[in-house]
Design goal:
By secondary structure, this protein is an alpha/beta fold. It is 42% helix and 20% strand. The strands form 3 sheets. It has an 8-stranded parallel beta sheet with strand order 8-7-6-5-4-3-10-9. A 5-stranded mixed beta sheet has the order 11-12-13-14-15. Strands 1-2 form a two-stranded antiparallel ribbon.
């Protein structure tokens, strides 16, 4: 697919826009003032594959905590600011690699200018964020409600405001919990700006519903070549956001590498605990994310070997036992309780090659 051509923006040790890969973000759900808990969560997210992390900065203590957090992590740190321009300035001074603001709720021209001046001084990009839940009343009246056109106009108005202050080190995000509104908004804005776009479905929901909405929305947006960095917003452990984002990018062919697990839906022929086994396999393969493989987990020996022939490795269940399959060929028969370990040994061997 042809990617939208956008301006390159440096965020700490990462770059988005241009021809750079789409990067995966998440946001901590810890209290930023709790440095230990926040650092521990960020390090977990790093191991899962997070490439940019955002934290809430609702207090001056949180802003000052950024300096300690920054020293202990390895990915760019983004400060999420609302209402208080002093917090944005303090966040930049304490090492934030990017700040996220909605200029409309920061306040007066002078206050926004103060934030922009500080960002310029430290060469810190500003993400201009607009959500459907915070759309201005005049735009709601103009378009007869919250609409994709209103979201785009709101975002571009704020961008123009900052540009008039002499700063263009910007990233744009326009988010909505309405999936199709979000998709249409991105289709509109793609031809109206050259700034990189941070893409996500806001307030998507729990791990189940949020994943479905995010996969549909991000899939439709990214498949059109729109987007430079993404976040899957889920109510739950943010590590789940990273797993989902990686799978979305791989499914669209926008990221290579990693292990793809395919498994059958089970039926009356299944004589092993395939549901549990498939979950165990999916968790186990995370440590082998550097390998580019397909692993099949099949419920029976009737179709299992055939269905697994396109996979690099596979398991096909029998009656309390199963077959270990390598590139379509049966390697050996094993008791059910030994299948997971045997599969792990195969992956270990491939990892050492």
């Amino acid at each position: 697919m042809n990617r939208m051509k956008t301006k390159e923006v440096h965020i700490g040790n990462q770059v988005i826009g241009g021809e750079h890969p789409i990067l995966i973000q998440s946001m901590c759900n810890t209290h930023t003032e709790d440095v230990k808990a926040t650092v521990e969560q960020i390090l977990r997210l790093e191991r899962a594959g997070c490439e940019i992390i955002r934290v809430a900065v609702p207090t001056m203590e949180a802003a000052e905590s950024l300096r300690q957090i920054k020293r202990q992590i390895h990915i760019p740190l983004v400060a999420d600011i609302h209402f208080d321009y002093c917090l944005a300035i303090a966040a930049i001074e304490n090492g934030a690699d990017k700040i996220r603001i909605n200029p409309g709720n920061i306040g007066s021209q002078e206050r926004v200018q103060a934030v922009v001046d500080k960002a310029r001084e430290y060469k810190v990009p500003i993400r201009v964020g607009v959500n459907s839940g915070s759309l201005e009343k005049n735009l709601i009246e103009k378009y007869g409600g919250v609409t994709e056109e209103g979201l785009v106009e709101s975002a571009l108005d704020k961008v123009a405001w900052i540009e008039q202050m002499g700063y263009d080190n910007l990233v744009i995000s326009i988010k909505s919990s309405d999936v199709m509104m979000c998709v249409h908004a991105h289709e509109i804005i793609r031809d109206k700006t050259h700034y990189p776009l941070h893409v996500g479905i806001t307030e998507a929901g729990t791990v189940t519903s949020g994943n479905i909405k995010s996969a549909v929305g991000l899939g439709l947006i990214l498949s059109q070549g729109i987007g430079d960095t993404i976040r899957v917003s889920l109510t739950g452990d943010p590590v789940e956001e990273i797993k989902s984002a990686k799978l979305i990018l791989r499914t669209l062919g926008l990221r290579k590498g990693g292990i793809e697990v395919v498994s059958c839906p089970t039926c009356g022929r299944t004589k092993i605990d395939l549901i549990q086994l498939a979950g165990q396999v999916e968790n186990m393969v995370e440590e082998f994310d550097h390998l580019n493989l397909k692993v099949a987990v099949m419920g029976c020996v009737v179709n299992g070997p055939g269905e697994a022939k396109e996979a690099d490795l596979g398991i096909a269940g029998g009656i309390k036992e199963g077959l270990l399959i390598r590139r379509g060929e049966v390697v050996k028969k094993l008791p059910e309780e030994e299948l997971l370990g045997a599969l792990r040994e195969e992956l270990m061997g491939l990892s050492l090659q």
